[in-house]
Amino acid sequence: MTKKFFGLGAAAMLAIGLAACGNEDDNAGKNEGASGSSSSSVGESVDYKITGIDPGAGIMEATDKAIEEYGLDKWTVTTGSGAAMTAALKKAYDKEEPIIVTGWTPHWKFAKFDLKYLDDPKGVYGGEEQIRTIARKGLKDDLPEAYEILSNFHWTEEDMGSVMVAIQEGAKEEDAARDWVDANADKISEWTDGVDPVDGDKINLAYVAWDSEIASHNVVKTVLEDMGYKVTLTQVEAGPLWTAIADGSADASLAAWLPVTHKTYADKFDGKFDELGVNMEGVKIGLVVPKYMDIDSIEDLKE
Questions:
Q1: For the residues of 207-271, what is the DSSP string, one character each?
Q2: Helix/strand/coil for 75
Q3: Are 245 and 134 spatial neighbours (Cβ–Cβ below 8 Å)?
Q4: pLDDT tens per residue across span 33-73
Q5: Per residue in 167-188, pLDDT tens?
Q6: Max CA pair span of the chain
């Protein structure tokens, strides 16, 4: 804004200064509401709304439980998609307005925005979780090479983050995955060590449309294709994902968040899927707000 007015006369600059002073009280009032100060409660400042994602996601089930456990009777959780949630977050953040969203780590939004998790003293969202790889029964016999690669697959939050940020900055999903694979030959060799290439065997990977899972599934798709597989990625919500693995209509998924987020589905389909291992440690879910909001705990949402 400063550059725009370079070269204006002193009178014009004075007028601008007076106008800015005239808006100070309004802006201060808006920011007071955004921070949840005494001028309005946090609930009033966000219309008692938590911005969520797709209704089948485990984090949404946990959020419904949090509303019950913390006695947040006035509150509602909106449903949508991960992309819609981050769009709403960006819009509010750019204006320094209050917003509460369902959040998870790893996610590129923590690199783009200054955010914090709300403390969860009742432990509704659990502690640190793992992302695990699951497969349909019989995959080990039908596609042993793919089973071995999927079992070996593991990476770090930093690895995943670099792919997510590349996609967010405009790279095509497959291009971001290819760039990461090409730059991390040592890690790829660990996943494929001792595995023989195949000739066009087909495999179907199911995933949810979280930025984290888009990154992981495109990377593994690239690795499997380099090993000779024809890979199909099928995007579904969490419930259909677990159902597809259990009934064999999908071969595998890298998107099982356990022990809390997908506990309902893991319990429901117990014995109907194989668990191949942990592909990422230390992940987390919860309620997330911008750091400029004067709120630290879910308990602060009560009036």
A1: E-S-HHHHHHHHHHHHHHHHTT-EEEEEE--HHHHHHHHHHTSS-EEEEEEETTTTHHHHHHTTT
A2: coil
A3: yes
A4: 454 444 578 999 999 999 999 887 888 999 999 999 999 99
A5: 989 999 999 999 999 999 999 9
A6: 81
Q: Are 149 and 224 in contact (CB under 8 A)?
A: yes
Establish how many alpha carbons lie within 13 A of residue 196's alpha carbon, considering only the half-sphere containing its beta carbon.
4
Evaluate whether 96 touches 34 at the Cβ level (below 8 Å).
Answer: yes
Tokens of 224: 């499997």
Rounded Cα distance between 121 and 70, Å, is 10
β-strand partners of 230:
202
Q: List the one residue out of 139, 160, 106, 146 whose CA is nearest residue 231.
A: 146
Q: In the numeric block, which tokens belong to residue 10?
A: 């002193």
Q: Are 116 and 105 in contact (CB under 8 A)?
A: no
